């Protein structure tokens, strides 16, 4: 791909760097969505860079460090061409379903060193707090993160799954470049307060799971039956039993709009996030996750798809009709602190 074929760029936060308008979620390359073909995953990373997808997203929790280690050779080879984002706060054990949360300053100082080591780099471009622990004052955690910026270990700060008021509180301690929260045709609770706060502050919204963890691609008709053993989505309420069948039926307008554009359902879902952000006056960099070059290219092409206002109106009712929560346990999400 030549430079002319690469995607547009936007500024991350209010003082850069510029990144491609779509990033790449790398989580599935190590865990959660079934078996991974390492060669295909590495080829996907190459395709991303060729297409101008420069924001790469990982976390210490993905594969309990394995995803950061997997990325290390790519990071080494392309350090100055990518914007590397990772996260701390989700504490895992041998129990694959256990999730603790730590926002303690001492924990943050240990976690950053471990991520730097696994990634094989001396600086993280964007360091997110993956989940909020309300027991620790935000000012303490953000204060500790600000020290990492001063020490040159981290360039910019991000938060994930925080409410609008929490984002404002954190920003008052230190500028926050990005808010990473779930935002898609199926998941719009972020629009309640976080999106408005991000727009006001100039924080870039990084929608995670913009394809509804694959559901919005039309891959499932009866997900509970179709997911393979060990796929993390088997535990997701939206992917099981009656919910899964109800949610599959909601995709009818998505498929119709896709057909009208000669596009795919995935592309319509991605174009929707991009255009929904415009309505809110926001900069967004969605991070669809894929382990396949062809899908990466398909997703990237969605940055050039524009939906009409009639089409946006037809998609509007979907989120309110979705059956099932985003997580089996919603207690650590921003939504749980907004009710
Ligand atoms: N901050 C948080 O709490 C949080 C939570 C979840 C995820 N994330 C981040 O967000 C990223 C993206 O979210 P996600 O991976 O959960 O969900 P997603 O991007 O909504 O969907 C990923 C799923 O869709 C499939 N897919 C991707 N493109 C496709 C296409 N064009 N056609 C058909 N299927 C397609 C992928 O399969 P293949 O890989 O087989 O293509 C994968 O199963 C993650 O990688 C992670 O970095 C953050």
UniProtKB/TrEMBL annotation:
Domain of life the protein comes from: Bacteria
GO MF term (any one): oxidoreductase activity
A GO-annotated cellular component: cytoplasm
Boundaries of every NADP-dependent oxidoreductase domain copy: 23-318
Keywords annotated in UniProt: Oxidoreductase
Keyword Oxidoreductase recorded: yes
Keyword Disulfide bond: no
InterPro entries in UniProt: AKR, Aldo-Keto_reductase, NAD(P)_OxRdtase_dom_sf, NADP_OxRdtase_dom
Protein name: Aldo/keto reductase
Organism: Streptomyces violaceoruber
């Amino acid at each position: 791909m030549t430079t002319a074929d690469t995607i547009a760029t936007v500024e991350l936060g209010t003082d850069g760097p510029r990144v491609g308008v779509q990033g790449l979620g790398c989580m599935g390359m190590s865990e959660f969505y079934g078996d991974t073909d390492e060669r295909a995953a590495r080829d996907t990373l190459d395709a991303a860079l060729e297409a101008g997808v420069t924001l790469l997203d990982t976390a210490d929790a993905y594969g309990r460090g394995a995803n950061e280690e997997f990325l290390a050779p790519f990071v080494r080879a392309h350090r100055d061409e990518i914007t590397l984002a990772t996260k701390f706060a989700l504490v895992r054990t041998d129990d694959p379903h256990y999730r603790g949360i730590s926002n303690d300053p001492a924990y943050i100082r240990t976690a950053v060193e471990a991520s730097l080591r696994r990634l094989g780099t001396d600086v993280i471009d964007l360091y997110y707090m993956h989940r909020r622990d309300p027991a620790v004052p935000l000012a303490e955690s953000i204060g500790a993160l600000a020290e990492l910026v001063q020490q040159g270990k981290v360039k910019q700060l991000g938060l994930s799954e925080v409410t609008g008021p929490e984002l404002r509180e954190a920003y008052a301690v230190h500028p926050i470049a990005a808010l990473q929260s779930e935002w898609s045709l199926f998941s719009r609770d972020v629009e309640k307060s976080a999106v408005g706060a991000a727009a006001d502050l100039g924080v870039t919204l990084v929608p995670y799971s913009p394809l509804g963890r694959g559901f919005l691609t039309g891959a499932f008709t009866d997900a509970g039956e179709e997911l393979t053993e060990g796929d993390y989505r088997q535990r997701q309420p939206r992917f099981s039993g009656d919910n899964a069948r109800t949610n599959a039926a909601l995709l009818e307008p998505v498929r119709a709009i896709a057909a009208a554009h000669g596009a795919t359902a995935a592309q319509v879902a991605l174009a929707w996030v991009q255009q929904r952000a415009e309505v809110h006056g926001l900069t967004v960099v969605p991070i669809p996750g894929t382990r396949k070059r062809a899908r990466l290219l398909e997703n990237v092409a969605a940055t050039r798809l524009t939906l009409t206002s009639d089409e946006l109106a037809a998609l509007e009712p979907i989120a309110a009709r979705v059956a099932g929560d985003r997580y089996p346990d919603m207690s650590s999400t921003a939504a749980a602190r907004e009710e």
